[in-house]
Design goal:
heterodimer, A: about 270 residues, mainly alpha, about 0% strand, B: about 290 residues, globular
């Protein structure tokens, strides 16, 4: 019996590690291909590691002003997007979780119904709307259309529903008004849920491709995924360079994830079902 | 008690202004506009003309649209069951491991989930390369000749399904794991006392108690997969012979190439009716207990 348990345990470890390796393999291959000469990325026979490790791909993609610019522009946009998303959606979440007011039910239904409108159905008409608002090729066109999100609002609200009423009542007795309660009690207590929603918003922005492709034509405003895809189709022979660029474009998200992974993995439990 | 029913109209409206205004401008107006355009022969360059339901009937009689729905369903059938079964077993593996190592493994399998479809496409286009891609290196080991994975109508869709599984596997496993950990250990202990084997425990305890998790993942996975279009857009452009044109890619390609957009919008709305009802069901299932107060 003991031996059997031991074998099962060992097999579990082996499977676990194997799956982790398989999951990470494509990324590892991308990172390592960034160190290869362009002819070596797809050389036969297949080699995982480069013959000579060269750093020139990484250094020359970093010297490409367009690459750096699109990383920077996207990063700035993503941070603004995430912060605005937290402010706008958490205010609404608080109002719907705690306040009583006229038309509450109507406004709730209005906001929630927007969750069911699929992006593709409004892709073109949204494009027409932003064109009429003269927003093409601006930061606003990347940030404003997606920043209010019923889904995120709903998620934050679920969290607020679990904050004890007593906390709020005590503040009321001390004379605090709603704004004060929101900014000094709810906002600071939201840290765990803000990490999840903030990172979700950040990633959504960072990884978005279709919307920027439609609304941004000025190369100085190119978003990183747009840059990568253009690079891929225009300079397809520069494979090592493309791999180095893709690696660098993935790094900010991976670092962010590694810093906050505890919260994110915990958050899966909340977001999954409850 | 009075305090609870007092109305905070001004505060509430002030705090709701941003979300309501933004959703109105960027979701509701485009949506109503889309409904309107779907009944017109609308284009950027000419006056629009009311055409009634003809956009919708054109879409429904377009064999390519029907084919794209079929492609979307096939794609979902490749991705969802594979992902669910792998994740179900892998969640058990993680649960059986010590906490130290399982933390590392949870992190590793989750990382692909945060990677963009574009980067995944770039990587997998190289993996599927005809002459020197890894996929052919692997099948060569089993004595199979090189395949043109993405260019062959027989293999293209399946080849795109693999990066889709790769991207979604981590989150699916972790949600499964969360579901598994919610099952009280005492159920299994009781079953052990009764002398139940692991198969019996799986069939009578784990699977019934995981029903909601599985249902949730099935619906979310299914609606997500059928709407996938970044991977085929970048990897194959919908080819070969439209074999990888998913419904959303069909619509997107029409947006880019057609002057008359009523047609694409009508197809998007038709798809929306189907997917919207599925999402409404998810919402109903998930939110049955904690719905709006009152």
């Amino acid at each position: 019996m003991k031996l059997k348990d031991q074998i099962i345990k060992t097999m579990m470890y082996a499977t676990g590690l194997l799956v982790a390796v398989v999951a990470l393999f494509p990324l590892a291959w991308m990172v390592i291909s960034g160190f290869k000469a362009k002819t070596e990325v797809l050389s036969t026979p297949f080699r995982f590691f480069p013959k000579d490790w060269m750093f020139s791909n990484y250094s020359s993609i970093l010297e490409d002003p367009m690459f750096l610019k699109s990383m920077l522009v996207t990063f700035t946009g993503a941070v603004i997007f995430a912060v605005l998303s937290l402010i706008i959606n958490s205010m609404a979440a608080y109002v719907f979780a705690r306040l009583e007011f006229r038309f509450k039910r109507t406004l709730w239904v209005f906001v929630i119904l927007t969750m069911f409108v699929p992006g593709m159905a409004i892709l073109l008409t949204s494009f027409i709307v932003v064109t009429k608002m003269h927003m093409l090729d601006t930061m606003a066109v990347l940030i404003l259309p997606g920043v209010a999100s019923a889904g995120h609002m709903f998620f934050i609200r679920q969290f607020y529903l679990n904050i004890p009423l007593a906390l709020e009542e005590a503040a009321f007795i001390d004379g605090a008004n709603r704004w004060k309660i929101f900014t000094s009690i709810f906002f600071p207590m939201s840290y765990p849920v803000f990490v999840i929603v903030g990172i979700g918003s950040y990633l959504g922005y960072w990884n978005s491709f279709v919307w920027p492709t439609m609304t941004i034509t000025n190369v100085d405003m190119f978003q990183i995924m747009q840059f990568l895809n253009t690079f891929r189709s225009e300079r397809s022979t520069e494979m090592g360079l493309l791999m180095a660029g893709s690696t660098l474009a993935a790094i900010p998200t991976i670092i962010l994830f590694l810093i906050f992974q505890k919260y994110i993995i915990k958050g899966i439990k909340i977001s999954g079902l409850k | 008690m009075k305090k609870k029913t007092r109305l905070d109209n001004v505060t509430a409206f002030t705090m709701l202004i941003p979300i309501v205004v933004l959703l109105t401008i960027f979701v509701v107006i485009p949506f109503i506009y889309a409904l309107y355009v779907s009944f017109y022969d609308w284009s950027f360059y000419q006056d629009s003309e009311f055409v009634g339901w003809s956009n919708f009937s054109n879409v429904l009689s377009d064999p390519l649209f029907m084919m794209s729905i079929e492609t979307g369903l096939k794609f979902a059938l490749f991705v969802v069951p594979a992902q669910m079964i792998l994740a179900f077993f892998f969640a058990h593996v993680i649960r059986g491991m010590g906490t130290k190592l399982s933390g590392f493994i949870k992190t590793s399998i989750y990382i692909p989930t945060i990677i963009s479809g574009i980067i995944a496409s770039i990587i997998f286009v190289f993996i599927y390369d005809y002459n020197a891609g890894l996929a052919n290196v692997i099948v060569n080991m089993f004595g199979v000749e090189n395949q043109a994975w993405l260019a062959d109508a027989k293999t293209a869709l399946g080849s795109i399904a693999i990066p889709a599984v790769w991207l979604g596997f981590g989150i699916t496993s972790l949600i499964m794991l969360a579901g598994l950990l919610d099952i009280p250990e005492s159920y299994y202990e009781a079953a052990d006392l009764e002398g139940a084997g692991s198969w019996t425990k799986m069939v009578y305890i784990t699977i019934p108690l995981m029903k909601n998790v599985v249902l949730y993942l099935l619906i979310v996975g299914f609606t997500g997969a059928i709407q996938q279009f970044e991977l085929p857009l970048v990897m194959t452009g919908g080819g070969p012979l439209n074999e990888t044109t998913t419904p959303n890619l069909y619509i997107f390609n029409h947006f880019r190439n057609d002057l008359l957009v009523g047609h694409s919008i009508a197809s998007a709305l038709l798809l929306f009716v189907v997917l919207g009802s599925i999402s409404a069901i998810i919402f109903k299932v998930l939110n049955s207990e904690k719905a709006v107060d009152g």
